[in-house]
Amino acid sequence: MTKPSAPIETRPPAAPRRPVRLAVRAVVLQHGRLLIVNAWRDAASDLWCAPGGGVEPGSSLPENLIREVAEETGLTIAVDSPCLVNEFHDPHGDFHQCDVYFRARIVAGRLDDGWRDPAGVVSRRRFVTAAELQGLRHKPDSLAAAAWGAGLLYDPLEPILR
Prior knowledge:
The protein is an alpha/beta fold. The chain has one domain: Nucleoside Triphosphate Pyrophosphohydrolase (Alpha-Beta Complex), CATH 3.90.79.10. It has helices at 61-73, 130-134, 143-148; strands at 21-30, 33-38, 52-54, 76-89, 96-108, 124-128, 153-159. Strands 1, 2, 3, 4, 5, 6 and 7 form a seven-stranded mixed sheet that branches. Strand 4 and strand 5 (96-108) form a beta hairpin. The longest helix is centred in the middle third of the chain and has 13 residues, at 61-73. It is elongated. The chain starts with 20 loop residues before the first strand and ends with a strand. The mean pLDDT is 89.
């Protein structure tokens, strides 16, 4: 006589997770000052970051970055080499984003207070010194090192801020 087999344990299937979002951002220095934006509708937050945004399939990372910077600032840029890869996520949800930061230069345009982001997301844009950036709430934590440092940095997973 054979022993009955142990019951097979089953687990409910894991909840589907969103794929990692890929974005690009520009590190633009002009006269020693870094271009930053406030990407919150109606300046609802005091959090600043480098301009950029989500990558659209079928376009290169530099093409996406040129488009994003134009939308958010009205500036035309030339894209140079990568300087930072940063990941952030929501530890209580399923949001995870990987940003690739590129050094970039302005080739046309200037900041204009009358400029409006067509998507209505970026409400403010400005250039700041390293000391001014230090006094502002900004992400990622390694932004200053990427802007005023050298080489390629990797900033591992950090929690999202709201």
